[in-house]
Amino acid sequence: MILVCPSCGATHSAEAWENDMNARKAFAARATLPIEVSAHLLPYLALFRPDKRALSWSRSLKVMQELAALIAPGWVQVQGKPARECPPRVWAAGMAQMVERSATLQRPLKNHNYLRQVVWQLADQADAGRERTQHHEVVSGEQRARRQRGDDEDPFLKAYKEKHGALPGVPAEVAESLAALKR
Question: Which residues, 6+ apart, have CB-to-CB distance to 41 below 8 Å?
Answer without folding.
Answer: 30, 33, 64, 67, 95
